[in-house]
Design a protein that fits this description.
mainly alpha
């Protein structure tokens, strides 16, 4: 399985988890469709897998065509891990809802969601070596 295909699958799953547990509830003002702790830990595990996959042989000459995708994947995965960990802390402490961690967690999850969508789009349009 090629790296763009693996990245596309991982970031597709990450985007769906963020959309179902974070984006849709914010847009529609409803409860999350998945429990937040379940979605958060599943996203952290998937993002860690994406981070490891992006870093594996990232600087070898044969991986040159996918370096940009690997860099976006690593930054997006790190943002999602940090964002979900902040949101888990907020979820367990009601006093933090209107504080700075709320803004930081929301920002990191939004950045991670956008970068996951970009990684998915790049992976789907990747043509391979020429």
């Amino acid at each position: 399985m090629s790296y763009p295909l693996r990245a596309g699958v991982l970031h597709g799953l990450l985007f769906v988890l963020v959309a179902v547990a974070f984006i849709l509830p914010v847009l529609f003002g409803a409860a999350a469709l998945l429990p937040v702790p379940l979605a958060a830990w599943a996203s952290v595990v998937l993002a860690a897998l994406a981070l490891v996959d992006a870093s594996y042989h990232a600087f070898s000459p044969s991986q040159r065509p996918t370096r940009g995708l690997r860099a976006l994947s690593a930054v997006g995965s790190a943002a999602l891990i940090a964002g979900w960990l902040v949101w888990l802390r907020i979820y367990n402490t009601i006093d933090l809802v209107s504080a700075t961690p709320y803004r930081i967690g929301t920002f990191l999850l939004a950045v991670g969601a956008v970068l996951s969508a970009f990684c998915l789009a790049i992976a789907l349009t990747h043509r391979g070596t020429r």
